[in-house]
Amino acid sequence: MTSSSKNNSLPKMNNEHPNAKLIQRFYTSFKDRDYKGMIQCYHPSVDFSDALFDLRGDAVAAMWYMLCKNATDLDVTLIDFAANDEMGIAHWEATYNFSETGRTVHNVVEARFEFKDGKIIKHQDNWDFWKWSNMALGLMGRFFGWAPVIKNTVKQKAGKKLAVFMEEASSKGDPEYRISDREQP
User: Fold this and answer.
1) Distances from the Cα of 76 to the Cαs of 8, 12, 45, 86, 132, in angstroms?
2) How far apart are CA 122 and CA 138, in angstroms?
3) Secondary structure class of 3 (helix, strand, coil)
4) Cα–Cα distance between 162 and 97 in angstroms, integer?
5) Which pLDDT score, from 0 to 100, does residue 174 have?
6) Other Cβ atoms within 10 Å of 77 Cβ, number
7) Within a 10 A sphere around the Cβ of 146, how many other Cβ atoms?
8) Is 52 within the bounds of a domain?
9) What is the per-residue pLDDT for 184?
10) What digits encode the pLDDT tens for the residues 107-133?
11) Cβ–Cβ contacts within 10 Å for residue 147, how many?
């Protein structure tokens, strides 16, 4: 994935740049459900957003930890990626059974990254919520997945699930998912 932007002020991206290798390491860790490897790719002040979450710092790490810990049939494939000194992009796909319905989901994701100090400081995953809801929720998603009330309901459930996960981890002492206190290699 080489950038072919008409804006010549942006440095070209390629998949050999050190930040591209960082993206590759992140998704290799994700495929292996190695949340610690994923967390090591993030800057302590990372911002993450997608259709369901807007998170910062340790909450980002907790989301991936929760996902990796609870996934039983997750398959992640990094299709393409590239980066330069400032930004990166990736196309990745995930296939899994949605836990609430047991329905198979094949999510196609376009990710954008920004970097600071050799780490990911901003991570944005873009995917089609309506397509996702059709697969995950069935007829309800097919007919109403476009409606803000459905998206907001799913977003609230996901947020509540993450909050409970973080609370339970915190009650056990020092949660493993912390990035801010973790030594960065």
Assistant:
1) 33, 27, 25, 25, 16
2) 32
3) coil
4) 18
5) 62
6) 11
7) 13
8) yes
9) 46
10) 999 999 999 999 999 999 999 999 999
11) 12
Q: What is the CATH number of the domain that holds 41?
A: 3.10.450.50
Vertex 34: Cα angle to 95 and 56 (nearest 5): 85
**Is 4 inside a domain boundary?**
no
- pLDDT value for 23: 98
10 Å CB burial of residue 29 (0-12, 13-18, 19+) is: buried
CA gap 13, 89 in Å, rounded: 9
Name the DSSP class of 67: H
Cβ atoms of 30 and 94 within 8 Å: the answer is: no
Average pLDDT of the residues in 133-162 = 91
Domain count, the chain: 1
Residue type at 29?
S
Distance between CA atoms of 29 and 25, rounded to whole angstroms?
Answer: 6
87 occurs within a structural domain: yes
Q: How far is CA 77 from CA 48, 97, 173, in A?
A: 20, 16, 34
pTM score? 0.87
Residue 134 lies in a domain: no
Question: How many angstroms separate the Cα of 128 from the Cα of each of 29, 35, 58, 108, 121?
Answer: 24, 24, 26, 8, 23
Q: What is the pLDDT of residue 178?
A: 78
Residues forming a β-bridge with 95: 75, 106
Residue range of the domain that includes 96:
18-127
Q: What is the DSSP letter of 14?
A: B
Name the nearest CA neighbour of 81 among 140, 14, 126.
14
